[in-house]
Amino acid sequence: MTTPSRSLIALLFCFGIGGALLSSRILAATTLLIAIAGMVIGYLKVLYNNGWDKPKELRLLHFAFWFFVLVSTVSWALEGFSYEGGKTLGTHARFILLWPLLLALTYARIGATTVFAGTALLSVSTLALLSVALIFDHSSVEQLLNGRFGGGINPIIFGNIALLGGMITLTGGMYFLHTQRQSAGFLLLFLGAAAVVVATLSQTRSNLVALPVLLLLLMPLRGKRLRIVLAIVIPIIIAVALISNDRMADSLRNLMQHNDPDSGISIRFEVWGQAWQMFSQNPLTGAGLGGYGRGIEAAVASGESPEVLLQCCTGHAHSDFFNVAATSGIPGILSWALLLLIPLALFGRHLFSTHKPSAHLAVTGTMISAGYFLFGLTEATFNRTLFLTFYLLSISGVAAALFHELSASYTGQRSVKVSATIITKNEEHHIADCLQSARLVADEIIVLDSGSTDRTVEIAKQYADIVEVTDWPGFGVQKQRALEKATGDWVLSLDADERITPELGREINHRLADPDADAYKLPWAVTIYGARLDFGRSGRAPLRLFRREGVSFSDALVHERILIPKGRKTRTLRGRLTHYTHRDFGHSLEKSAKYAWLGALEKHRKGKKTRTMLYPTVRGLMTFVQVYFIRFGFLDGAVGYLTAVTYAQVTFNKYVGLWTLDRRSRNP
Fold first, then answer.
1. Measured between alpha carbons, how far is 664 from 668 in angstroms, rounded to an integer?
2. DSSP states of 523-572
3. What backbone phi and psi angles, to 5 degrees, belong to 562?
4. Which residues neighbour 368 within 8 Å (Cβ) at sequence distance 6 or greater?
5. N or C: which end of the chain has fewer CB within 10 A?
6. What is the Cα 373 distance to its own chain's centre?
7. What gap in Å lies between CA 391 and CA 397, rounded to an integer?
8. What CA–CA distances, in Å, run from 193 to 1, 124, 166, 209, 360?
């Protein structure tokens, strides 16, 4: 695959996003074509052969989309494979295309410029639809203001997507201004503002709920003074939007004067009540994908609900929450929450990035997730094909662009001196690779060996600046000895079974060119049995890089801590610290037993006690739950399960060891 294929994929993305409101077929066709390209890229392993370091955040995003489809499939099966449920599942099944889309868009190396070009086209198409209505449909301005403009499709869908596209285009305009592309910046600001105005012509109430939130999300992109201005301007914009929205004004007037909401709101309340009743009857499974429609029909037939529900509300419950609760129960609620919260967390952590492209893309992704949550309060967005496909393509595009921009942002070169410290014993299989990787960021390498009987010391002397052999006083004391020999401004403390990846090396050098913290945690990527674990035990990020002055190690026998002076700031880097914890299962058993016993001795030394065998059992189970479920270890497959069981066993053995030590001290 070549450079033209990259450009073609980027163009398809722009046309797909830009043409979403012109025709749902444009969006569906371009999404499918990009996904097919991604399948080919995945089959040929193009990205992996070029050294792509697959971000674990993208795997987590993939899980969220697949889990939603899985829950829908199970709901459909439990209800007996109904025809109506099958149609709904067909819509939801589009989410399985997320990973091929991510592969294709990552291969195409799309960035912030491509994403904002696509949303600018969406704003252009929004204005084009309005122009067509005025010129060719002979609609007057007065008719448009008094009616609900939908551009030829459902006004709710049109209004929501046009609003989201307009706000993202405004974000793109700010990005181009920040990067000194003034003409493009002002053009996008105009297009975005115009699209937002057109979106209000849809008279969609959920837009008035979403608009203030989307405006607030622009604040991280501005300085403190402009944030104050936005805080004043936003309420004014909302007030004007409320006044100009006849439907909202009429609804509020009826509610305040007659305590009577309009028919649309009344119908939604009735539907939500029925949906909640279905959930209450089957909280674990729901009524099934087709069960909701049958439930509404039954309620109307019994006279419990008005007949108007048969005309508008048998397909879905006009709310994502109530819809998934009614059809799929608690698993459905969980799948819906993950579908929104995982992207929200992924993008939200980069909102205040100092790298402009990354920050603007983070705001864009957050807008999409937050917007769909707010739209979904009064509309079943994930049951409508256009809504769902737009979410699929936009989230995959922004995510791929964000990680491309983050990777490309590591351009800084440090001027401070870095010392790497490593303690060893019988690490001949690891030490060469460890020291070579450390040299990516270290000017000085110090190795303290505690009596190796293999070639560790001989190999270390080929790569390290200082190699000394000492006794073994425990992990904490030995690492403190190594630290005292360091002369760098910053210290990188590594274990012999750890590696600095090239991308992590570039990130460290970039961060230390202008440090924004005094210490950094480096996320682990545990690698065992031929697999790299992205979750479970790899969910940890140990502190490894810090300013040398004033820092020391605790004197613990095992699981020592780096003692950072109070008031200093600690941050977590993105890059992964590869961790080869053991060579084989036998080594795993040996190492686990050693660490469990040392842990028991350390707790006993500190006066800790375990009086019953129940406590070690509970702690072991808690460790398994934490590693396998809470840290998503199940996403690492069979090796993830084995790792969770192994760490649960270590925890159990540690507290059982403490129990035996306590009994021995009480009964000498």
1. 5
2. -EEEEETTEE--SGGGG---EEEEESTT-EE---SSS--EEPPTT--EEE
3. -90, 125
4. 164, 168, 343, 391, 394, 395, 398
5. C
6. 15
7. 10
8. 39, 11, 6, 17, 17
Phi, psi of 127 (to 5 degrees): -70, -35
| Inter-residue contact 191 to 124 (CB < 8 Å) | yes
DSSP per position, 332-357: HHHHHHHHHHHHHHHHHTTTT-SSHH
For residue 215, what are the CA distances in angstroms to 194, 211, 277, 403?
A: 15, 6, 36, 24
**141-193, pLDDT tens digit by residue?**
666 666 678 888 999 999 999 999 999 999 999 999 999 999 999 999 999 99
Which pLDDT belongs to residue 205? 82
Residue 451 phi/psi, 5° resolution? 90, 45
Q: What is the DSSP string of 42-63?
A: HHHTHHHHTT----HHHHHHHH
This model's pTM is above 0.85: yes
- Ranges of residues in the chain with a pLDDT under 50 are 255
pLDDT at 304: 87
The pLDDT value given to residue 309: 84
Please name which of 126, 138, 276, 147 lies closest in space to residue 202, comparing C-alpha atoms. 147
Asked if 193 and 170 count as a contact pair (C-beta separation under 8 A), the reply is: yes
Task: Return all residues near 97 (Cβ < 8 A) that are at least 6 apart.
Answer: 31, 32, 35, 38, 392
List, in sequence order, every beta strand (DSSP E) within 349-450: 418-424, 444-449
Q: How big, in percent rounded to 5, are the helix, strand and coil portions of the chain?
A: 65, 10, 25
Cβ atoms of 187 and 170 within 8 Å: the answer is no
Task: Give the model's pLDDT for residue 587.
Answer: 84
Say what the pLDDT of residue 462 is.
Answer: 97
Calpha distance 74→535 (Å, rounded): 25
DSSP string, 225-265: HHHHHHHHHHHHHHHHHHHH-HHHHHHHHHHHHHS---HHH
In the prediction, which pLDDT does 668 show?
A: 61
As a whole number of angstroms, the distance between CA 578 and CA 586 comes to 21
Is 410 in contact with 510 (CB distance < 8 Å)? yes
Q: Are 511 and 576 in contact (CB under 8 A)?
A: no
Q: What separation in angstroms does the CA of 656 have from each of 113, 560, 595, 610, 649?
A: 58, 21, 13, 8, 10
Q: From its phi and psi, is residue 608 left (phi > 0), alpha (psi between -120 and 50) or beta? A: beta
What's the token pair of residue 509? 């050098």
Long-range contact set of residues 503-507: C-beta below 8 Å, sequence gap at least 24: 503/53, 503/407, 503/410, 503/575, 503/576, 504/573, 504/575, 504/576, 504/577, 505/437, 505/440, 505/441, 505/575, 506/410, 506/575, 507/410, 507/573, 507/574, 507/575
DSSP state of 627: I
Residue-level pLDDT at 16: 97
Q: Are 473 and 556 in contact (CB under 8 A)?
A: no
Exposed/middle/buried for 611, CB within 10 Å: 0-12, 13-18, 19+? exposed
